[in-house]
From TrEMBL:
InterPro entries: Epimerase_deHydtase, NAD(P)-bd_dom_sf, UDP_G4E. The keyword Calcium does not apply. The keyword NAD applies. This is UDP-glucose 4-epimerase. Its cofactor is NAD(+). Coiled coil: none annotated. Belongs to the NAD(P)-dependent epimerase/dehydratase family. Pathway: Carbohydrate metabolism; galactose metabolism. It comes from Limosilactobacillus pontis.
Length: 331
């Protein structure tokens, strides 16, 4: 019996695979390496290279392996790219979910844990954001993920496939042993970009907008450590296996940090000056996104270990310092 991790060569998926293996699970990875890295896949996992939109590929994986649950990370996730290339997001994200659910239905696989996102809420009406708050995404990425949540809900009613949608806020950090970390190409996320400036790989950080409706004018986000996130997925699998109903949970720290505060924290962690300049707003960015994540704590029993962004940044810094070129320096 094994867990299938779709997108297990990516940033969050590779940490999930490591966590599952450390919990004694057998793991199968399906990934087309479009944004992931072969070297990020744990050597104890069985790897199938292919696209989840390819039904024959999925049939091969499900025929060969005794899969009990699927954890689904295989998607595109760059907010600004989705604004300029919306159909790319509906094709890969929403399209991938159709094929995956059809294959699960036909192979009688009943559990899926899904990477959803704070971006499904759009501009929130309340802060912190609760799972019951309205979901009105303001970018195609968020809409593609909301459509995927709704498709799972209908697949539950029609075929009995139970799901947990985990709505991540901003994921950062790396495995504390420094073996795997975040390596997107091109990088667009705040924490790795700040650390690339600290490393001297970039001249300066551009802070996208200082005229938002927030205390210091820069966007406020809620950062969660990637290993805490992985733990929540393991709890979600157990929750489904215990016969519970489909559900959605926010995963965040319930504390917001502005882009300027994140820069300051990174300066403290790295001891580097990290030059920065103000730049125009980036399309698709809501002012603030902070999670109410007590539901995951109460129902799943989730206990995040990292509650200080300095510690989150420190694990990322360990990875970046040891792998200045990311996974490329292992080729
Ligand atoms: N990074 C964040 O802050 C964040 C926040 C909220 C939600 N998420 C979600 O978490 C998931 C993982 O994010 P990440 O940062 O690890 O991204 P990532 O790009 O590092 O990982 C995605 C992985 O999926 C693979 N993939 C993509 N499309 C595929 C397809 N059609 N078939 C097979 N494999 C495919 C890629 O090769 C990659 O290995 C995404 O679905 C994203 O929407 C991420
Ligand atoms: O060079 C940069 C990069 C980012 N930012 C700012 O930093 C903040 C965080 O940006 P990220 O790109 O790191 O993350 P996002 O908040 O855009 O999106 C992340 O979190 C979202 C949910 O909150 C989604 O789930 C999405 O998948 C995930 O990438 C934003 O205000 C952004 O404008 C900068 O100022 N300069």
């Amino acid at each position: 019996m094994a867990i299938l991790v779709a997108g297990g060569a990516g940033y969050i998926g590779s940490h999930m695979v490591k966590d599952l293996i450390e919990h004694g699970e057998d793991v199968v990875v399906a990934d087309n390496l479009s944004t992931g890295h072969r070297d990020a896949i744990n050597p104890k996992a069985k790897f199938y290279e292919g696209d989840i939109r390819d039904r024959k590929f999925l049939d091969k994986v499900f025929d060969n392996e005794d899969i009990t649950a699927v954890v689904h990370f295989a998607a595109f996730s760059i907010v600004p790219e989705s604004m300029s290339k919306p159909l790319k997001y509906f094709d890969n994200n929403t399209g991938g979910m159709i094929t995956l659910l059809e294959a699960m239905r036909d192979h009688n696989i009943k559990y899926i844990v899904f990477s959803s996102t704070a971006a499904t809420y759009g501009v929130p009406e309340h802060m912190p954001i609760k799972e019951t708050d309205p979901q009105n995404p303001i970018n195609p990425y968020g809409l593609s993920k909301l459509m995927m949540e709704k498709m799972m809900a209908w697949a539950d009613k029609a075929y009995g496939i139970k799901f947990v949608a985990l709505r991540y806020f901003n994921v950062a950090g790396a495995a504390p042993d420094g073996t795997i970390g975040e390596d997107h190409g091109p990088e667009t996320h705040l924490v790795p970009i700040i650390l690339q400036v600290a490393q001297g790989k970039r001249k300066e950080l551009s802070i996208f907008g200082d005229d938002y409706n927030t205390p210091d004018g820069t966007n406020v986000r809620d950062y969660v450590h990637v290993m805490d996130l992985a733990d929540a997925h393991i709890l979600a699998i157990k929750y489904l296996e215990a016969g519970n109903k489909s559900n959605a949970f926010n995963l965040g720290s319930s504390t917001g940090f502005s882009n300027k505060q994140m820069l300051e924290a990174a300066r403290e962690v790295t001891g580097k000056p990290i030059p920065a300049k103000m730049a125009p707003r980036r399309p698709g960015d809501p002012d603030s996104l902070v999670a109410a994540s007590d539901k995951a704590r109460t129902i799943l029993g989730w206990k995040p270990k990292y509650d200080d962004v300095h510690d989150i940044i420190a694990t990322a810094w360990k990875w970046h310092s040891a792998h200045p070129k990311g996974y490329d320096d292992r080729d």
